[in-house]
């Protein structure tokens, strides 16, 4: 009997030791001091962060990360809860701020529970003093056919955000072309020159399709909505109204016919950059980057920014946001999602530093890294 008691004690002790050893570094130490792309990223409760397809806004010394709240299982890609918000002062340690935008329980509502609500991005409007959240919405039960942009606002960064509307942008509007653009380069809806031109013209009366997206605020306060349009064949960059809650009708088409998804947009030294992906559902593919001297283009396509092993599939991820690090010059973080559609809640975050060579950029894989990676 005594022998069994001793054996039991030994078993209990060794189990507790091994469960401590399995605890992620961060929760064990209480504080995280590095990025570990692809690992579990626990929040202040020790729960893996649930903010997929997300974006980050920096306000008064704090970063706020907004993303899709996924649930367990393969139905977890449907919006059952809403948009989750986390806050951090150092980008390593994240505090759960709860659900910033709740899906609706009202049948028929555009963001009814069970709809698809992807890639939320929040920006702050200095004139209205409101936080504005844009996202991609697909109406419940309609697959990916609605292809709408949704918008919600809040007086407080963490929410609750009030849903305003969802729609397809810029009905009846033709793209903006800089002066001197030859007619041969303009879209002709009398005789569309390509498949994607045909989709554009088909959608002209009702508005352009808007799926994967981001929002960018320029130095002059003007904001832009960037989205995969025309059945995901072409990106559009569209100006938002002064209050950031609607479209002005001014927009351009970028890289027509080349199926760019997952757009991100940022600015460095007066140059605009976009990093996006190809279009292969939840499977990863090679990233692609573009640059331009004006938001209105012309945008130059530069190919894949990722280097080394795994670069052909963005190391297993897909872009979602590029974050300028506050207080550091030339410090930009490439944020990507490693999707796990069979158990959506387990999706991982791949954040990597962007390195610049002159005006060119490059991304390399790192198992772990910290902000000292940025030299200045
Ligand atoms: C890839 C997109 O980038 C995601 O946001 C999501 O829409 C999936 N496709 C759906 O297959």
Automatic annotation (TrEMBL):
Signal peptide: 1-21
Alphabetic keyword roster: Glycosidase, Hydrolase, Signal
Site (Important for catalytic activity, responsible for pKa modulation of the active site Glu and correct orientation of both the proton donor and substrate): 212
GO biological process, one term: carbohydrate metabolic process
Keyword Hydrolase applies: yes
Recorded GO MF terms: hydrolase activity, hydrolyzing O-glycosyl compounds
InterPro entries: Glyco_hydro_43, Glyco_hydro_beta-prop_sf
UniProt KW 4Fe-4S keyword: no
Family: Belongs to the glycosyl hydrolase 43 family.
Name the record gives this protein: Family 43 glycosylhydrolase
Species the sequence originates in: Hufsiella arboris
């Amino acid at each position: 009997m005594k022998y069994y008691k001793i054996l039991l004690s030994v078993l209990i002790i060794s189990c507790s030791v091994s469960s401590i050893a399995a605890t992620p570094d961060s929760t064990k130490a209480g504080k995280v001091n590095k990025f570990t792309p692809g690992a579990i990223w626990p929040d202040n409760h020790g729960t893996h962060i649930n903010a997929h397809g997300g974006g980050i806004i920096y306000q008064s010394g704090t970063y706020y990360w907004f993303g899709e709240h996924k649930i367990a299982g393969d139905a977890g890609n449907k919006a059952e809860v809403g948009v989750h918000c986390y806050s951090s002062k150092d980008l390593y340690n994240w505090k759960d701020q709860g659900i910033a935008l709740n899906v609706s329980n009202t049948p028929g509502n555009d963001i009814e529970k069970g709809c698809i609500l992807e890639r939320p991005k929040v920006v702050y409007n200095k004139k209205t003093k409101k936080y504005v959240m844009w996202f991609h919405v697909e109406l419940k039960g309609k697959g990916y056919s609605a292809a709408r942009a949704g918008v919600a606002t809040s007086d407080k960064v963490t929410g609750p955000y009030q849903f305003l509307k969802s729609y397809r942008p810029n009905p009846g509007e033709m793209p903006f072309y800089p002066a001197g653009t030859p007619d041969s380069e303009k879209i002709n809806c009398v005789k569309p020159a390509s498949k994607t031109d045909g989709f554009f013209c088909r959608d002209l009366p009702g508005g352009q399709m808007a799926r994967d997206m981001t929002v960018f605020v320029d130095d002059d306060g003007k904001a832009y909505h960037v989205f995969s349009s025309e059945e995901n064949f072409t990106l559009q960059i569209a100006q938002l109204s002064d209050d950031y809650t609607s479209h002005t009708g001014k927009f351009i088409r970028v890289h027509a016919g080349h199926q760019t998804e997952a757009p991100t947009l940022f600015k460095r030294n007066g140059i605009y950059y976009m990093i996006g992906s190809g279009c292969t559902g939840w499977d990863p593919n090679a990233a692609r980057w573009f640059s331009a001297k004006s938001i209105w283009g012309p945008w130059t396509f530069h190919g894949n920014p990722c280097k080394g092993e795994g670069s052909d599939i963005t190391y297993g991820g897909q872009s979602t946001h590029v974050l300028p690090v506050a207080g550091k010059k030339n410090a930009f973080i490439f944020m990507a999602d490693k999707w796990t559609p069979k158990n959506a809640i387990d999706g991982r975050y791949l954040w990597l530093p962007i390195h610049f060579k002159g005006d060119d950029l490059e991304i390399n894989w790192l198992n772990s890294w910290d902000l000292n990676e940025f030299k200045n």
